[in-house]
Amino acid sequence: MNATQQSRLRPQPAEVAQLIRPVRWRVRAAIALTALSCACTTAGLLAVAGLADALLVTSAAPWGWLVGIALGLIGGVALRILADVLTHQADADLAHGIRHRLADALERAPFSWFQDHPAGGIRTVVADDVTKMHHLVAHSYTDLTAAIAAPGFAAAAIAVIDVRLLLVLAVPVVAAVFLGRRMSAVNAEKMPGYGAAAGALGIEITEFLDTVPLLRSFGRAGALTTRLRRADTRFVDYFLSWAKPLIQPETLQAQLVSPVTLLAIVIGSGTAFVAAGWTSPLALIPVALLGLSVSQPLTAIADNSRSLQMARGSAKAIQDILDTPGEQARGTEPFPPVADITLDDVSYERDGTPILDRITLRIAQGAQVAIVGPSGAGKTTLARIIVGLITPSSGSVHIGDVPLSAIDRDARRSAIGYLGQHSHLLRASVAENITLTSDPDPERIAAALRAASAEEFVQALPRAAETIAGEEHTFSGGQQQRLAIARVAYLPPRVLVLDEPTARVDVETEHDVQRGLASLLAAAPGTTTVVVSHRLETIADADSIIVLDSGSIVQQGAHEQLLAQTGLYRRLWNAQLMRPEDPTEGEQ
Asked: Where are the transmembrane segments (predicted)?
């Protein structure tokens, strides 16, 4: 069970209260209005008894009773409508506020947090769980209030009329409440597992949508489809194992407080009481009406018990993201004028597993340095530490003579460009995708496109840089990477870190991306460049090549120097060129 799924443990009331705090006064006002609505409805129904007495017994003027009935019933409906309007407005404002708060929390969350929380689980929280809060805020509180207030007022009124009829009516209501408590306990027990199954399914759906085009090109989409079907089957099986045992008690509970059941009890027991001389026939009219008035509130609680548990589970998942600790205190130092990079005894581990072990190196300003090594050597982790996406477990990183963590975050992001294996375009204009702002500079955009060798295909678009990505045009993988290069060029960067930007593209696209990178480097002389690559022929001209293996630096030097040595770099080079291994390999 991953961290996102674990966040759906049984919520505590304080967590739900904390989440809805911004709208709590409107919710409380709606609760008060709902209770007052139930009181008015009860008064209106009692007035029916007075009307019956006036018409059938005393022959008194009925108009006062008619006014009382109208004021009570219409007032009750109007107050409940006002309560529902308040809760729905509160729900809309709360959902809007929660999404903004989630965006802020995700923006300040450290990069390592996202490594432990798959994108599918996060999307489920931001989209589905926020939507599920609608039931909690818009319906649950007022429904619960009505389920308590309506029977309470009705019971008080019936007790005044004939307490014996109240005792008879209490039997099915108490039985329904008993069943409801048992089902609520089952729902609370099952909710964490349901959230975990739903989260796992969301992760599989996201991975399927993200990777199915690539896997289809290799004829391997079937494996991913099988995983998705298994996750869906686990979700459905878990839900059915939860729901099936509750079908009978839920049905029984609903029938116990249904209008037909309550009316039958009033008529049957009332007729017996009248025959025995215990009560008057006119007393049965308000008792029947009051009995029917409690059916809908009690049935609503029975129908919404599971939805309420789901909403509470969603509240817990949302609150866990909101409580995510942000990055360490933001630095205040400007970016140093000399952009050399120094790593001193840097180590990094994740979940107790060492990834990097005591890395010490210096990269001079303006140098072009490559990081190579076998899969799992720690290349990407080292690149992300240099960028500042990951904080090392121990050791220090300096830019010039200033610790990386002490540099102002905005200044650091403006001076350090990072281009990874995946490039993402927003559903926005090309210009906004390059600048990541709503106020782009056209001259700088044009220069960035030229630097990325992307000007030609952008100018050929219907609205050039104003074309909306994903709506007006769908960009190829190579075009997306070149727009990502243009995004870096727009800064322009003092330090450029390239983490295998051509690892997931075909040969033709790789050529286009490499042309864009070469153009970018030519347009920004003096930029300190760090390139992570598994294709050694692309970094042979680097000033220095760092060879990683199992998280440690095992070799460092220029291409020709490393080839002259008997070591890992030469083995990797020969393997890529499919040359036979040197018989002296392994002597050093």
From this structure: 29-51, 63-83, 141-159, 165-181, 256-276
Inter-residue contact 426 to 435 (CB < 8 Å): no
Q: Which of 273, 292, 322 is the last residue of a domain?
A: 322
Residue 31, both tokens: 């609760």
Q: Check if the beta carbon of residue 362 is closer than 8 Å to that of residue 346.
A: no
Q: 398 and 267 share a domain?
A: no
CATH number of the domain encompassing residue 127: 1.20.1560.10
* Domain containing residue 456: 341-576
HSE-up (13 A, CA, CB side) for residue 350: 13
Local structure of 331: helix, strand or coil: coil
Asked if residue 68 belongs to a domain, the reply is yes
State whether residue 511 is helix, strand or coil.
helix
Q: Is 321 exposed, middle or buried (0-12, 13-18, 19+ CB in 10 A)?
A: buried
Cα 342 to Cα 39, 362, 363, 383, 558, distances in angstroms? 74, 4, 6, 13, 19
For 328, residues 6+ apart whose C-beta sits below 8 A from its C-beta are 110, 391, 405
For the segment 533-557, what is each residue's pLDDT rounded down to a tens digit? 888 888 888 889 999 998 899 989 9
Is the domain of 275 the same as that of 350? no
How many whole angstroms from its chain centre is CA 132?
12
Angle value at C-alpha 200, between 195 and 202, nearest 5 degrees:
95
Using DSSP's 3-state secondary structure scheme, residue 439 falls into coil
Helix, strand or coil for residue 371? strand
Six-digit token string for 87: 């809760």
Half-sphere exposure at residue 537, Cβ-oriented, CA atoms within 13 angstroms:
8
**Which pair of tokens denotes residue 574?**
């020969």
Bigger pLDDT: 147 vs 398? 398
Between the two ends of the chain, the Cα-to-Cα distance in Å is: 44
pTM for the predicted model, two decimal places: 0.65
Per residue in 24-65, pLDDT (tens digit) is 899 999 999 999 999 998 888 888 877 777 776 666 677 877
Here the CATH number for the domain that contains residue 515 is 3.40.50.300
The residue to which tokens 């140098």 are assigned? 367
Q: Same domain for 500 and 416? A: yes
Measure the CA–CA gap between 281 and 554, rounded to whole angstroms: 99
358 shares a domain with 223: no
CA 407 – CA 341 distance, rounded (Å): 13
329 falls within a domain: no
Query: Total domain count for the chain?
Result: 2
* Residue 29 to residue 36: CA distance in whole angstroms: 11
Taking residues 403-410, report their average pLDDT.
Answer: 85
What is the SS3 string spanning 533-544?
CCCHHHCCCCCE
Residue with tokens 């996750």: 231
Domain boundary among 262, 288, 322: 322
